[in-house]
Amino acid sequence: MRHLLILLILLVLPFTLPLAAEEMKHTTDSVEQVKTSVADGKAVIVDVREQAEWDNGHLKAAQLVPLSLLSKDGAEIPGTLPKDKPIYLHCRSGARSLKAAEILKAKGYDVRPLQAGYGQLVKDGFEKAE
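Structure (tokenized):
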């Protein structure tokens, strides 16, 4: 009887857990919406690639906060990241932006990971830094 009860709990438990650990998804905000929001100061854009990638080219409007920094145990979030504005995250291909979004969302930030990576964002009209 005890084994049956344990089995029942194991079968039912996954359906009763809260969806707090909901899977992070890329934003559905359009590229134009992102560009306008960032240009108007209503949002910020953050590059979560590593320093060497940033040094090889980055968006003029972006700030660098590498995923490796965010992933460290006890890492402090840079004070330049606002909690009162959306934060658009980008990387090279979209995977790291999702991981960074999970970390920042858990700390109370309004994050919107972009599926488009750096190269695509440049093609879509974001200005490159000189």
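Confidence is low (pLDDT under 50) at residues 16-20. The CA atoms of residues 6 and 12 lie 10 Å apart.
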